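Discussion board: Methods & Data

I've been asked by a reviewer to show the raw model output for two of the constructs in my manuscript, not just the figures. I'm not sure how much to include, so I'm pasting the format here to get opinions. Each protein appears as its amino acid sequence followed by a line of discrete structure tokens. Is this the kind of thing reviewers expect to see in a supplement, or should I convert it first? Here is construct A:
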Amino acid sequence: MIRKNLSHLKELIAAKCLSAGREVDSVTLIAVSKLFGTDHMREAISAGQIHFGENYAQEFRDKFAVFSEENLVWHYIGTLQTNKVKYVTGNADYIHSIDSVKILAEIQKQAEKKGIIQKVFLEFKSSFETTKSGGGIEEVFTLAAESTGMKNIEVAGVMTMAPFVDDITIIRDAFRRTRLLVEELQRSGYSGIKELSMGMTGDYLTAIEEGATFLRIGTAIFGERN
């Protein structure tokens, strides 16, 4: 089932890229494998999937150990607590959920200790839902400014989650505001901040239209959790 789901999903992504006037390889599919076992991941790997996303630091740590010999690209996409940073930094290729200077500083500390450059995304709260994490425009700019003094951190882009609503106009607006924020950051001298991590199972086609470069998709690949 997972192989079939991946194949179908990649066909839809490619078709949407072409209709939006984008190159197919401009979008990277992250298979969000949180709470799914390693057998599900193995099936996805056998189907050619190499990018995987995890939400929980200890689950990520355990899965990373299991698949350490595989040539995978790991994305940590969940909220990160300070005491869990050590599990993620240097193992995840990308950390998508940077929403405070405190977390950024701890990642810098761990990355320096390990002698690596950690790629991160700054989390932007593009909706008005109080339950969403991330910062507003001013907070994202503050994080970008702080990162310039951290030699072991590379800010790759901005991440957001669209609101859980049925109105596609509201969802599109959230994605568009995120894209415009990245453009504003680039105009302000942060030329390395290019990527857009946005779009999940329910809204990834709209995200592609609005410029997403990383899609975080779980249900459409692995199915619903029981």
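Construct B, same format:
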Amino acid sequence: MMGRRSEDNPDAMEYSAKWFLKKHEDGEVFGPVEFAKLKEWSRAAQISPLDQVSDNHAHWIKAPMVAELHMDHLIQLGEDTYYGPTTEEAVLEFLRCGEITADSIVINCCTGVETALRHAGFFHAQPPAPEATALDEPGRRSIRQNLQQRIRELELLLMERHRQLDMAEVHIRQLERRLEDAGLPAD
């Protein structure tokens, strides 16, 4: 769906010239763009782990599922809190913005290696400043913004599940009353 093997070089992936990015937080779609532009956005922390991509505007997959985007790193933010997967460059962008420190734990999802950022092979003590984002490109979101958005979504999902559970309990009570009215045991 997302790419096909080249006949000349079976190890190389060929990509459609038309790629789209759908932002998770608001459903905004960017594109069509070349695959190289998607990679650029991914490296610039403009694609979050929950965003989706498509090469046909019909079938969407989570961006980290496209191996060539190299969204291979998790950032440990707390004992049981992680952000990612994201790119090496995005990790450095979060460091530059002060959202993480050089002592933050980074996990390579491909190898399972867990290390302090300062010991990661891609660590640079002074990451370069980011380039300006064009108006027709997705904006950068902080780790905090992404986590707050995910918490809001989970809270809404939990409220909906509680509502469904309450409705199911009412329905069960109604069925039990009908069984009792019919003279049958409810057990």
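Answer (T.O., handling editor elsewhere):
This is acceptable in a supplement if you add a one-line summary per construct. For B, something like: The chain has two domains: 16-127, 142-187.
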